[in-house]
Specification:
414 residues; mainly alpha; 3-stranded antiparallel beta sheet
């Protein structure tokens, strides 16, 4: 790095610290690898992630749990820094009907989460100019990003096959998960299927092989003479097989002329290996998605463990909800920068318990003489306006002198 480059980098750092955005001349230039003039495809095929949702039961169950739980949490539009909700605001009305004629608001919301988790990206087109009137979704499989020289997106190319459209970055709300790459592929997020791919392939192979073996006939029992020197004739074999089959279907006693041994083949080590591979894949899916076993119906946890797992699970969902709200703030800012859209988690049982504990702590501080509003703020709670005391009146020097003189007159001297 030469002296000129160091000076430019220092100037950019100083301007960024002062709150100035870099000018086009000061913006970093990533070279021809970014400014190629062509859309750069993602390194991981989004279709693989989408297809996995329909192929693997435990992945479907875990994602469905996240989507179902989050979709039950109401999203509200409110004034920043307050709890005052505005259901009649144009932003609230837009999110109540984001894709007119295409899908309901609930399905639109669930589809966004599914795209975002499976592929690492969700693209929402803001239609209508400065103040959008619709928010249709673009399928991740058909979207490619053209990188700009500064390292950010220059345009979004949507090509489903029939019509090719190019959109400006300011017209796309791009939910993107974190990325591990350093080339233009870093403009795409990493979905949950990519780190699970090998596990899912192993599970798929095991299930396929097990299904193939299940098609091959295997005897339920093996009946042999008790005496090694005895050989059953064809008629005796047929009679014993018919009698056993009838008994197995209806119950009863099996009577034979000679002593026999009945052996029921058990699971082979190979069969047990298939089960273990599926279990390992299931555990990996739940770990990557942060879903505890109890949420997808796997028993085994006691009440205390289930409560702890629920608290951790909803803590992760709260983080996902916050990322979604932060990304959608771009849409809200087009209408009014004083507003914000948030998930209202106060109705969730886990957070209700936590809020009750905070209120109890605030009550104890109030009992020891603390100001109610200050006690609630100390616990991270928003006090109602009725508890906020007015600012103290400015001191009156003349009145202060009179009070001091009165105290001197009434205080007895030794």
């Amino acid at each position: 790095m030469n002296l000129t480059t160091r000076v430019q980098a220092a100037l950019i750092s100083v301007r960024a610290a002062l709150g100035f955005s870099p000018s086009p001349r000061e913006a970093p230039d990533h070279g021809q690898s970014y400014a190629s003039g062509q859309p750069h495809p993602p390194s991981f095929d989004p279709r693989v992630g989408m297809v996995a949702f329909a192929k693997f039961p435990w992945l479907y169950a875990a994602l469905n749990a996240i989507i179902s739980d989050l979709s039950q949490v109401p999203r509200v539009v409110r004034v920043k820094g307050t709890t005052e909700t505005l259901p009649g605001h144009p932003v609230a009305q837009l999110f109540a009907n984001p894709a007119p004629g295409r899908m309901t608001a609930d399905l639109w919301y669930q589809q966004r989460i599914l795209y975002w988790l499976l592929t690492g990206n969700c693209y929402t087109l803001m239609v209508g100019g400065a103040k959008p009137v619709a928010l249709p979704l673009l399928h991740p499989e058909h979207v490619q990003i053209e990188p700009g020289p500064s390292g950010g997106p220059r345009s979004y190319v949507f090509d489903p096959g029939a019509v090719r459209a190019v959109y400006r970055p300011e017209d796309i709300s791009h939910w993107r998960r974190t990325s591990w790459q350093s080339d233009p592929s870093s403009l795409y997020g990493t979905g949950v299927v990519e780190p699970l791919l090998q596990r899912l392939q192993v599970e798929h192979s095991a299930v396929q092989q097990s299904a193939s073996m299940a098609k091959v006939g295997r005897p339920t029992v093996i009946i042999t003479p008790n005496d090694p020197g005895t050989v059953f004739q064809d008629e005796a074999r047929k009679r014993i097989a018919e009698n056993y089959s009838r008994m197995a279907a209806t119950g009863g006693a099996l009577v034979v002329d000679h002593g026999v041994n009945v052996h029921a083949p058990s699971w082979t080590p190979r069969d047990m290996e298939f089960q273990e591979l599926v279990k390992e894949a299931r555990d990996a899916i739940l770990a990557v998605l942060g879903v505890p076993p109890t949420v997808v119906g796997i028993p085994g946890a006691n009440f205390a463990t289930a409560q702890m797992e629920a608290a951790m699970y909803w803590g992760r969902l709260a983080g996902i909800a916050k990322m979604m709200d932060t990304a959608d703030q771009r849409i809200v800012d087009r209408f009014d920068r004083r507003m914000e859209i948030v998930h209202d988690l106060t109705g969730v049982e886990v957070f209700r318990v936590a809020r009750a504990a905070k209120l109890n702590n605030a009550s104890m501080m109030i009992a020891f003489g603390a100001d109610p509003a200050e006690a609630m703020e100390a616990e991270g709670l928003i006090p109602p306006p009725s508890l906020k005391s007015p600012p103290p009146a400015p001191a009156d020097p003349e009145r202060g002198g009179q009070d001091a003189l009165a105290r001197m007159l009434v205080t007895p001297t030794a």
